[in-house]
Amino acid sequence: MNDHAPAMSVEQYDRGWETKWDDMKRHGPMSRHIRRLIMNAIRPLSFNDVLDVGCGQGSLLADLVDEFGQIRPYGTDISQSGLELARQKVPSATFSILDLAAGRLDRTFDLVICSEVLEHIPDDIAAIRNLAAMTGRYLVVTTVQGRMRRFEAGEVGHVRNYAYGELIQKIQGSGLKVTRVIEWGFPFYSPLYRDLLDMMGGQGTTGEFGPLRKSLSTMLYWLFMLNSWTRGDEIVVVAEKA
Length: 242
Known about the structure:
This protein starts with 9 loop residues before the first helix and ends with a strand. It is an alpha/beta fold. Helix 4 (59-67) links the parallel strand 1 (49-53) and strand 2 (72-77). Helix content is 41%, strand content 20%. Helix 1 runs parallel beside helix 5. The chain is globular. It has one domain (10-241): Rossmann fold.
């Protein structure tokens, strides 16, 4: 579902990481659940090095290092400000600037993760091809499907929300074999939580999280445990090198 919204600039991403997104990624209920879904998807896999493409401020990489202490962690992002935060969280990782639609790193990794990134990139076909080229064994992609809310196009910077089945088709078109799909979130994340955020203009999740907001986020996190794993607008795709 491509609403042809304009893409955010690098400067906008830098300002976002500097001013309003760090606590959202650390404490926000949806961000925590996305990391939980990814962990569930990758525990059966065998990997020694992992690349987080679009790693932002590094919360996912930090969780990966905590759980899989033997891995060699790598991260890329288009935002230097995001990478500066990530270096503080994961000093053992190797980080580099990367515009995924325009290029790729000149090597492969056992596991490549690209979480909540493709919906921000106008040329997602080129981005997926670059992901496939860096994938040595496994690729995990997460993104959002279904109707785009106004705050997603504005505050969050989505250029698309995927139609059902669209992401799977595009990943398979890159030459990878899709082996698992999770569709999560009904009903408390979507439609209820997304519609509530739309009414609030997306402001409910950004900025600094004090004790009250952290407590509310934790309550929502546990409520989201009741969401379906087979029906929902958050999709997790696991693919393998053919």
